[in-house]
Design a protein that fits this description.
heterotrimer; A alpha+beta; B alpha/beta; C mainly alpha; A: alpha+beta; Rossmann fold; OB fold (Dihydrolipoamide Acetyltransferase, E2P); 3 domains; six-stranded mixed beta sheet; five-stranded antiparallel beta sheet; B: alpha/beta; D-Maltodextrin-Binding Protein, domain 2; 9 helices; globular
Amino acid sequence: MVSVELLSHLPGFILDVSWEVSDGVVALFGPSGAGKSLTLNHLAGLRRPDAGRIVVRGRTLYDSTRGINQPTRDRRLGVVFQGFALFPHMTVAENIGFGLRRLGSADRRARVGELLERLGLGPARDLRPHALSGGQQQRTALGRALATDPDLLLLDEPLSALDTPLRRALRDDLALALRGFGKTAIVVTHDLGEACQLADQIVVYEGGKVLQVGRKADVLGRPASPAVATVLGIRNVLEGEVLEATPEFVRIGWRGHELRAANWSERPALPSAGSRVSFFVRPEHVRLMRKDRYGAPVDRRMNVFRGDLVGETDLGTSLALQFRVAGGTPPARGYDLEIEISRLAHEKLHLDYDRQWTVAVQPSAVQLLEVPGEPIGTILPIG
Amino acid sequence: MLGRVVAACGLLVLSGSVPHESTSGRRDGLVVFAASDLQPAFTELGPAFEQLTGQPVVFSYGSSGSLAAQIELGAPADLFFSADESYVRSLAQRGILDRASTRVYAEGRLVLATLRSSGITVASLDQLLRPEVTRVAMANPEHAPYGRAARQALVSSGVWETMAPRVVMGENVRQAAQYLLTGAVEAALVSSSLALDTALVSAPLDPALHQPILQAAGIVRSSSRPSDAQRFLDFVTSDVGWPVMERFGFVRPHVR
Amino acid sequence: MFAEGLDLVPALLSARVAGLSTLAAVTLGTPLAWLLGRYRFTGRALLENVVLLPLVLPPTVVGYYVLVLVSRRGPVGEVLAAAGFDLAFTWRGAVLAAWIGSFGLFVRSAQAGFELVDPTLEDAARTLGRSEWGVFWSVTLPLAWRGIAAGTALAFCRAVGEFGITLMVAGNIPGRTQTIPLAIYDAVQGNRMADANALSLLTLAVVVLLLLLARRGARVRF
C-alpha cells in the first residue's frame, strides 16, 4: 500500500498530485513531461518536493508537516532507471550484489547466485555491462533492484532504452518478473500497451496533475473525463445532449439521431435531462452491417445509422475508416466516427468500391465520460 | 599494478631524504650569489679557496637583478658579487649589504666577437655595418650592464640608428654570446671574459666609448659568517686569486 | 658523454620535490576537482580561473609575487618563521613552487574526469543504500580515475621541469634548492654541455618512463 501526496514547483511546471494504490503493479501513465518521472524522483528521495507526504507499507518516508525526509539510502527501495544505469566498471554479479553490503560475503554470494539463476544471467555473471545484450542489461538492472528485497520497486520507462523488436519480448519477461514481486511496483511509462500489459492499476498523469486512479479495467473502460480519454488515446470522443436518463440507460441526442447508452450500475448520479454530456465509442465496436442482411429485424435498442465512408487510414494489420453520418451538418473535420476493422474484413466487404453503409453500435459500447457531480478519482478498496 | 605504482612513487619521494649538501665532517658551504659571467672564474676559485682555508664555497649564479631581489627578500646569501654596481649600491643604501664591505672588484670590458669558423672578423663598431653581418647580438640595455654599455658605445660611435634594425637582444650578456656561438648572429657585443671561448675571435672596444662597467660586491648583513665572507672577497682580488680572474678576462678597476 | 663525477644530488632533490609536490596536488586537488566538476555554484568560474592563473602567467612573475608573500619579511613567511618554519630559499620553497606550477594541470584533468561521471549512476548507488561517502568511493572516484591518473602524471612531469617559479622562490643554491632544471641551466651557463646533456637525458628518461606507467595506471580497473 503506497500513498502519495506531492506538491512541487519547478520553473514553468507545477506538480500537484495525490493518489493511493494497493499492492501490485501500478503504471504511472501519461504523456512526456506530465510529472511521472518527477514523482518517481520524489518517491526515491532523489529530489525534494515543496510539500507532501509519502507513506509506503505503513512507513512514512516523507512528511513535510512533520519534518520527516528519509534519505534515499534508508528508504528501502529498488530502482530500475531509464537506460538501466548499470555500473560500467563492475561485472553483472558485482552490480547485482552492490546493495548487499550489509550481508556477510557468504550470504551475499548466495543471494547473488540465486538471483543470477532466477534471471537466467548465470553465464553472464563475470561480464561487464557493455558486453551484455539489451535484455541481459534489463535483467541485471532488475536483479540489482530486487536483490535487497525492497519495500517498493520503482521503474522509470524500463523499456524505452531498447529497440522496438526487442521491446515486446522483454515486456513479457518484465511482466512475469513484476508479477512475482509481491509488494508494490510502480512503473512509469508513456506507452499504453506497456501500461496495460504490466500493470493492474493505472494512475493517469497530465500536466502535473492526476486525472484518474483505478484498476486497469476501470480506467480503460470508463475513463472519467474527455481529458483522460485523450491521454488514453481514445478515439470517437463525442458530445451530445441528454434527452432522458434512467439507471438502466441514457438517451443522448447526437447529430440529429437518438443514441442509447447503457448506464453502469455503480454510477452514483444521473445526468439531468437537457445537460451536455461527453461520451465515446470505441472504433472497434462500430459494426458495419452486412448488406445481405438488411431485411432482417434489428434489435430496436441497437443504435443504427446510415452514412458514407469518406476516408480511411492504413494501420498495417487493421484499417481505420472515417464514417460520416447521413443528414444534418457534418462536423468540421469531415467525419463523425472512426471505425476500425481488420484487413480481412476490409477485403471481404469490398470497401474500396462500396462506400454507402449502415453501422450499428451496441448501447453498452457507448460510454459516458463526464457527469457533473461525479468524483474523478476513486480510492480502491484494499484487496 | 596500482600497488606497484604507489610503491614507485613512495620510493621517489623517500629517495630525496638522502643527505645532501654537507657530508659528515665537512663544514657548511659559504653561500655566494654571483652574476653569471663570473661562473668560469669562480668554478676555479671556489675549490682553490677551499684548499687554502678548508672552507667550502657554494655558488648560486643568476642575473644580478634577480639575485639582488632575492637577497632583499631574505635569500640565505653570505656574499653578493654583482655585474653591476648599482645593485650593490642600492642594497648597501638600504642596509641589506654591509656598506663598509662593499667594493668594486673589477671593471668590465666590452669586446666585439665573431665566430672563428665563420671567417668574419670585425675590428671596430662601424665594421658591423658590412653586408655580411646581418645580425648583431647584445645584452638588453634595459637591465643588463653590458647591454647598457654596448648601447652607449654604439650611440657614441654614431651607428646606433643604422644598427638598430639588425640588433638582437639577449636577456644577458651570456645569452648574447650564445646567439653568436650557435650561429644565430654573425657578431656580438659581449664581455671580455665570455669572449675567451676558443670558438670566438674578438677585438677590444675603446672603453672611452661607454660609461665604465663597474662590478661590485658586498657582504650581506644578515650573514652568520661575515668573516669567512670577507676572506673570500679578499681572496678574489688577492695576488693568488686575481690572476685567475685576469685569465678569464676581468680587468682591475681604474681609479678615476 | 657523462662528465666525470656527475653530481646526482639535483636528481634526488628533484625526485623528492616533484614527489611531494604531486602528492600535495593530488590530495588538495581531488576534492577541488570533484567540487568544480559536479556542482554549479556562484564563483565557480572565478575559482577555475584562479586555479589556472599560474599556468598562464610568466613563471618569473608568479615566482616573484610568491616570494614576496613567503619570504621572511612577507605576510605569510613571517607567520611561518615565527613557528620556526622556513619556506623561501629552502627545498620546501621548491616544493611550493613546483606545486604552484603543476596544480592547475592536475585539477583541469581531474575535473574533466569527474564531469564525465553520469549522475544517474550516483543516484543508483544511493538507492542501493550507500552513504554519500560510499557513493564517492564506489562509483564517482573509479569512474573519474582516468582523468585523475592523467592529471597526476602531467602534474609530476610539470613539477620535475619547474624552473622559473622555483628559481625565484627557492633560489638556485646547489645542494639545497638546485633541482634538475636549475642544474641544467647552470651547466649550460657554465658551458659544461656534457653535464647538461647527461642531466637532460636522465630527466627525459624518467619522464618517459612515468608517462608510460601512467598510461597503464589509467587502465587499472577497480
